[in-house]
Specification:
Layout: H1 2-34, E1 53-54, E2 61-62, E3 69-74, E4 77-82, E5 85-90, E6 94-100, E7 106-112, E8 115-121, E9 134-140, E10 146-153, E11 160-166, E12 171-178, E13 181-188, E14 193-200, E15 217-218, E16 221-225, E17 228-235, E18 238-243, E19 249-254, E20 256-266, E21 272-279, E22 284-288, E23 297-298, E24 309-312, E25 315-320, E26 323-328, E27 341-346, E28 350-356, E29 359-364, E30 367-372, H2 373-378, E31 389-391, E32 395-400, E33 410-415, E34 423-424, H3 430-439, E35 445-446, E36 449-454, E37 457-462, E38 465-470, E39 473-479, E40 485-488, E41 492-495, E42 499-503, E43 506-511, E44 516-521, E45 526-531, E46 537-541, E47 544-548, E48 552-557, E49 562-567, E50 571-572, E51 578-584, E52 589-592, E53 597-602, E54 605-610, E55 615-620, E56 632-636, E57 639-643, E58 647-652, E59 657-662, E60 682-685, E61 690-695, E62 698-703, E63 708-714, E64 719-720, E65 724-726, E66 729-735, H4 740-747, H5 749-754, E67 756-763, E68 769-775, E69 780-783, E70 793-798, H6 801-810
Parallel strand pairs: 11-15, 14-19, 20-24, 31-68, 32-70, 34-36, 35-41
Antiparallel strand pairs: 1-3, 2-7, 3-4, 4-5, 5-6, 7-8, 8-9, 9-10, 11-12, 12-13, 13-14, 16-17, 17-18, 18-19, 20-21, 21-22, 22-23, 24-25, 25-26, 26-27, 28-29, 29-30, 33-51, 36-37, 37-38, 38-39, 40-41, 42-43, 43-44, 44-45, 46-47, 47-48, 48-49, 50-55, 52-53, 53-54, 54-55, 56-57, 57-58, 58-59, ...
Helix pairs in contact: 4-6
Length: 811
């Protein structure tokens, strides 16, 4: 009995031990299914819900690892890479494949809080292949790991130089190789998109190429600003500013730190963020962050003390109960950091009723009056009372198709002319032109080029750059101290010195656009200056220098001492044939039957031609700076006048030059896409002998008797319409904001309804200005033919063809 009992006990014990072994193995196998085995070095530890969280290993790994590569682990949850799969396992859900790669690739991962960023290399480093080099994947871990974004980019993990993270908000910043340089990118997991950092070198500093580092770093300093979604992150190179709303963009500012930021309302645009920065040398500046250095301003504490509104990136406005206040910075070179100008406009006795964009409505002594911030800020030399506008009365509005634009070219038979695009005294060899084009290739801008063959040597002047062509090479002599003007049309054409000659120890240059002749030494320094109107041709004859200018020929000695000044002589037309030129503008041709002279303007030259006497003369007179403007030739009180957009030349009927009045264009100027609708519009008041001319942002009064010119009206950045006369008053249409016409084209009739138009009246005796306002955008204004003492106006609305076409295309 005892033996059997013992045997039973032994067998039972063996059975129990076996059962425990089996259960143990089953349990272990179950754990193996949940947690992959991986050889992982001592991990970095981060507290998350009081449990351990494993960070990814630093450096690259392959997506086809046979042994699991743990990327994240928290308690019983793990994300790992194995056999081309990105897996997630948990005790509750078991195993789930988050992503599967099609082939082995080099990869790297970075963990920032609840976001895991994984990059794989699509094109290996050093490969000559073109295309996206990296595939970037973002995973949101909580509440359950999910792939939230995938995007192929120009860089992969092998191009990553540094990876830096921000905790609030959760962001990844990458510096990645990009050709011979590097780029900076930001990934915002909350928006699931990448943003390129715009670099703003406010002080000219450059960003140095960073050294490649492994792992994830955090910024040394980060800050956010109350009530606005603006964040700044500081590192060794400066500050990165990230704006989440309203436009989601990032900027790098080198050698600066952001001290403060605030949202500023714009009167006619969306709000923008104004940042206050400090440089390493302690200088504080302001800039609208998405405008960068274009709006770099000297810091002004007053802008933080009130709820200022911006009219543009350099003008701030504030309406107080008794006045209108303006802080305005000079619009121009931001490197100067000019101090702001503070001005006030009293509204004492007026009550502000409402505002609509830049336009304010007041009640003044029971009347409704209006004033525009644009008028207040941009009108020069104006009595403040002349800025108030009343409602326009006695008008009708018509809507029609816009008349077709036409220059109304006219054709005339003229003497054959010699014209070359490049000013030269001999045929220019092809190799010289090619050498010039290699250095100064014409594009939208055509350089002013003057070629001269002096003896056996060729010299070339390109704008101010002076060269000699020698030994099949263009060698730079230096830079000439001359004037270069630009004609602006569909493109831009430079106008410079039209002639130069070599003297023993230097040069003599006809500074055509500067109306002077210069004697330069071999260092190209000015030694002697002779004032001559528009010199264009120099001729050395023995010990004398002949200078051809507009209609006159001057003779000097070799020290440029004036010896004589004589009108240019008429020449015989014998041997000259006639040809047809088809592109005269009507005002560029004038036939004076009294004197028998025909006057015309062609390619910068003024011609005086007497067919009866078979003689003519021509002289260079220049070009308009605004190509839209016409050169006008017309008779006035026994004179023939030639009017350019910056100069008036007066002649008697026989062609003798009498005098000149210059009125150079001024800055700022309405040119190119800013050309005013009334550019070159002319009204002549014969009672006072004053010509009123629209030139850019101003109206000039050219006094014919006194040969004087003055500005009678100026409003910068406005659109001035054509001039009209009614009795002793001048009228013109005015859009205070020149951008209104482009807003109208972009957005259509809705913009027309929300805009306004001014009609300005100027008394020709006192030059007093009155403004009248009508709601809506008006394209043109006419005065009714049967108008009495109080003119009746016809305001034209032209169909917005461009805007309508764009809307149809978008639909």
């Amino acid at each position: 009995m005892k033996r059997r009992s013992r045997s039973f006990i032994v067998v039972s014990s063996l059975i129990v031990i076996t059962i425990f072994i089996i259960l143990f193995l089953l349990i272990m196998n179950k754990k193996d299914d949940q947690l992959p085995v991986a050889v992982v070095p001592t991990p970095s530890v981060q507290s998350l819900d009081a449990e351990e969280t494993w960070k990814p290993l630093e450096g690259e790994f392959s997506t086809d690892l046979k042994e699991p590569q743990v990327l994240w682990k928290q308690g019983q949850q793990t994300i790992y890479v194995e056999n081309l799969q990105l897996n997630y396992v948990s005790e509750d859900a078991g195993k789930e494949v988050l992503y599967e790669w099609k082939k082995p690739m080099s990869a790297q991962a970075w963990l920032n809080g609840e976001y895991l960023l994984i990059a794989t290399q699509l094109i290996e480093e050093g490969s000559g292949e073109e295309g996206h080099r990296g595939d970037w994947m973002a995973i949101r871990i909580e509440p359950k790991p999910t792939v939230i974004a995938r995007q192929e980019l120009f860089f992969g993990p092998q191009e990553v130089l540094t990876m830096t993270a921000a905790e609030e908000p959760r962001l990844f910043f990458v510096k990645a190789l990009n050709g011979s340089g590097f780029s900076e990118q930001l990934f915002d997991p909350s928006r699931m998109e990448w943003v390129s950092l715009d670099r703003e070198f406010m002080n000219g500093a450059e960003i140095k190429m960073p050294a490649k580092t492994q792992g994830l770093r955090y910024f040394s300093k980060s800050q956010s600003f109350q009530n606005i979604s603006v964040y700044s992150f500081s590192d060794e190179q400066g500050v990165i500013v990230y704006i989440q709303e309203p436009n989601y963009a990032a900027w790098r500012y080198t050698d600066y730190e952001l001290l403060d930021a605030r949202q500023v309302s714009f009167l006619e645009e969306f709000p923008q963020i104004l940042g206050r920065f400090r440089s390493q040398d302690g200088q504080e500046v302001l800039t609208f962050i998405n405008h960068g250095v274009r709006s770099l301003l000297r810091a002004e504490p007053r802008l933080w003390q009130k709820d200022w509104q911006a009219l543009n990136p350099h003008t701030f406005t504030y309406a107080s109960p008794n006045g209108l206040e303006v802080i305005q910075y000079k619009d121009g070179d931001t490197k100067e950091l000019n101090p702001p100008i503070y001005t006030q406009f009293s509204t004492q006795g007026a009550r502000l009723v409402t505002t609509k964009g830049s336009l304010m409505e007041f009640e003044v002594n029971g009347e409704t009056k209006y004033i525009s911030w644009h008028d207040l800020i941009h009108t020069e030399d104006s009595n403040p009372e002349a800025l108030w506008a009343s409602s326009l009365s006695n008008f009708t509005v018509k809507q029609e198709n816009r008349p077709p634009h036409s220059f109304d070219w006219v054709s005339h038979d003229v003497l054959e002319w010699s014209f070359e695009e490049d000013n030269t005294n001999a045929s220019v060899p092809r190799e010289i032109k090619e050498a010039v084009d290699e250095i100064h290739q014409d594009s939208d801008y055509g350089f002013a080029k003057t070629y001269r063959k002096l003896g056996s040597r060729w010299y070339v002047l390109v704008d101010q750059h002076f060269y000699e062509y020698k030994d099949n090479e263009l060698l730079k002599i230096g830079v000439l101290p001359i004037t270069v003007s630009v004609t602006t049309g569909e493109g831009f054409s430079g106008r410079g010195a039209r002639d130069f000659v070599r003297v023993k120890d230097g040069w003599i240059v006809a500074d055509t656009e500067g109306s002077r002749v210069l004697m330069l030494n071999d260092k190209l320094e000015i030694e002697t200056t002779l004032e001559v109107a528009v010199p264009y041709q120099l001729t050395l004859e023995g010990e004398q220098l002949h200078i051809d200018s507009t209609v006159y020929r001057y003779t000097t000695d070799m020290a440029m001492k004036l010896l004589s000044a004589k009108p240019q002589a008429f020449q015989s037309t014998a041997g000259l044939k006639k040809t047809t030129f088809e592109h005269f503008r009507p005002q560029e041709w004038y036939q004076d039957r009294q004197s028998g002279l025909t006057w015309y303007y062609l390619h910068g030259y003024l011609y005086q031609y007497n067919e009866g006497k078979r003689e003519y003369r021509s002289s260079y007179i220049g070009y308009n700076e605004n190509a839209i403007a016409e050169v006008r030739i017309f008779s006035y009180k026994d004179e023939v006048l030639v009017l350019l957009d910056r100069r008036l030349e007066r002649f008697d009927r026989q062609g003798k030059w009498l005098s000149s009045a210059a009125f150079p264009r001024s800055e700022p100027d309405g040119l190119y896409d800013r050309t005013t609708q009334g550019e070159n519009s002319l009204i002549i008041d014969e009672a006072t002998d004053i010509f009123y001319l629209v030139q850019g942002y101003r109206i000039l009064g050219i006094d014919w008797k006194r040969n004087e010119v003055k500005t009678v009206f100026r409003q910068n950045y406005a659109d001035i319409g054509k001039l009209m006369r009614q009795g002793d008053e001048l009228y013109f249409l005015l859009h205070s904001n020149e951008n209104d016409r482009y807003l109208l084209q972009e957005t259509g009739e809705l913009a027309r309804e929300n805009l306004y138009t001014e009609i300005v009246r100027m008394d020709l005796q006192s030059l007093r200005v009155n403004r009248f306002l009508v709601e809506g955008y008006m394209d043109e204004i006419f005065i009714s033919a049967d108008a009495g003492s109080e003119p009746a106006f016809i305001l034209m609305n032209y169909d917005i063809e461009f805007a309508e076409e764009m809307r149809v295309r978008q639909q």
